[in-house]
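FIELD: query
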Amino acid sequence: MELIAPLDSLFLLAEARTKPMHFATLQLFEPPIGGGPDFVADLHRRLLADTEVHRTFRKHPARAFLADKVRWETAPEIELAYHVRRRTLPGAGDHRELLELISDLQSALLDRARPLWRVYIIDGLRDGRFAVYTKWHHAAFDGISAQRNIIRNLNVDPACPDVRGWWHSRSQRAKHDMDGIGLRRGLATALRFTPGLTGQISKALWQSGVPTPFDTPSSMFNVPVHTARHCAARSWPLDRMTSIRKATGSTVNDVLIAMISGALRRYLLGRDALPDRPLIAMVPVSLRAGDGGDTGGNRVAAALCDIATDVADPAVRMDRVITSMRNAKAVHSALSPVQSMAFSALMLSPIALTLLPLSAPAVATAPVNIVISNVPGPSEPLYWNGARLAANYPMSIVLDGLALNFTISSTMDTIDFGIVGCRDAVPELDGLLDHLEISLIELESATAG
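FIELD: result
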């Protein structure tokens, strides 16, 4: 019997109609020249014929010991026609209509009586491209590994006719195999050294001046969430961020955070809702070895970043973001990976409390205002039966107290923003896309030689 790891079970226990606990990826593909009008229909048929389904994609929660959601049951077979659907946009077929469909799909819960994933092949886009939307439950899949699994099933050769679904990969490992055991061991190790850890963290915090959960102002994003989601997505050329990075001696991630900061400042000013104090963002940072050899388990810490939304000058905002991120990374570099993850868990504990069943939403004590994640994407052209991957938008989870989430990926020479918000708490989410462009222009002007 395969028991569900405690952390994974929490995603099931916390899930409610208003809080779906799945993340997703929206990809855009350009069909090959000469693909013909039946290219997408043929692709869908070939996917339904790929019945070699890895056991990870056949698991669903089941009862044990008179309790629900405590073990995984592996179905001997699954109904691919349910999990892999084709949709055709009925209207104009523009980007807005596509994102409205994605928003509806992101709002709907996954059926727990079936394996916790679905794929939608979407055509009818007027620019000739087609989309693939994949949703995965966080109890069964890890976000970064899910992204990597998709990429592994694409091909660098545009002439390769191979078509495999994400569920086919023999290299896919269950989430609990990758992080459940490692997390339990890591937390046990951290607890054995709690006194020393507390002293090191206290010293690092006092010396660095990084934000703490007590510095977070109340904002319109720190409210209970409702059922409906709103998703937005847009891509920008990477070289625009690279120019700013070179001019400021920062990282691309710093530039993206500053870009979001300017957009949020403009959005909040337009709603007369800008706090006097700067918003605090939670930015996951990797703790993996630089050589990429460390591939197992979660190795991510939470950096709390002052994103300087209280500052009008884009150059000063950029400097504040750079300094805040450097200070946060310095704190984590002074700790071991296990200590760093334990420290992150402590800082974000109010969020964890909101996930517990029957708990009241701890929105008044939200440790951060928003989440900004950067998930690495492919650095070379990739193809699926000759169709080129043109964009790769991650869509993440929003929670009570965290009604807005930015997740960023990349596709070769573009940066792809996926934004998810509670539709009621964050109205007119599409406007943030225009604010992001204005913010980027301001950063370009402020850093131009």
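FIELD: remark
The first helix runs from residue 6 to 14.
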